[in-house]
Amino acid sequence: MSQKDIEIEHQWTFVYNTDRYGKCDTSEMQVYSNSFESNLIPDVKFEITCCVSSSKKYYVILSKTPHTPVNATIAIQSIGSEKIGRMVHVDRWTDNCTLEINIENLRLDVPNDGLFSIFDRYSRSISMRCNITWRAFEKPKFQVFDDLCDYFKKFLTSPDLGDMKIVIGKKEVPVQKIIFLIYSVAFLVTYRVDVTKSVKKRIVVRDIEINIMRKVIEYIYTSAMNPIFDFNALLSILKVADKYEMMELKELCEEKLSQNITIDNVLKIFERASLCGVPKLMETLISFMVEKKFQIVALEDFADLYRRIPKLLFEFFMRSFIIN
Known about the structure:
Largest sheet: 4 strands, antiparallel
InterPro entries: BTB/POZ_dom, SKP1/BTB/POZ_sf
Protein name: BTB domain-containing protein
Pfam family, one: BTB
Strand content: 25-35%
Number of domains: 3
């Protein structure tokens, strides 16, 4: 795909109900949902869903398939005299992007038809426009390129070709030094500092289970991760990626965890994320927790987590119970 920016536009009409004073009736709010494509970007399909919350927030959820990362600017704006909208810049957009628009000050006059509805209810509509500026994702300098990964794959199943060993406890995993060291600066430093003549070509790795290290090695050689979501393994892989500065793997873990947050796992993800420097994941977690704040504070492990990392949970309380 060309690196030139591509502009995509989609328009729709959002229908909602109010009383005679313009107050939204969110209990019967119509939800708009539709899909659209652009011949400028073949094989990419967009899904858009819109709804309004009781706090007069207009939510637009935009998703795309396939989930190949791209950089994009997404702008949502009303058409006509009532100007409301929001614009965001999305780096490495893979799946869902949610925009929140404040419609509290939107003018909602009673229709001048001389009659009141028998149910004191009025149907209104807003015409909206979505503009997407699509930029092909440029791979960062730390990413192992696909053509090299194709070449590296054959070494993964050929342990006899290894010229260095990763040592975990009593087990050793043969790897190719050049492949491993160009992928991780931290491993390169470890190799230079810790390797002596008596243990030449061996790097001892602590606090990592052998099965997790094998998954990390598989990713280094193939630039691919098992599509089956394994929550506990992914948290451990994130820890390894952060420790050894494997930035691409770290971002992939961040994306997968962001897409699989539930009430049952949110606190565990929050605790690990707080130690690994993943701001996008932290923002997603806090937003999820704010949305489900009463369920969150009722969790058995919440009080213990708050005692251990009160500073990080401060924003959750501010956004949940003070700001709103």
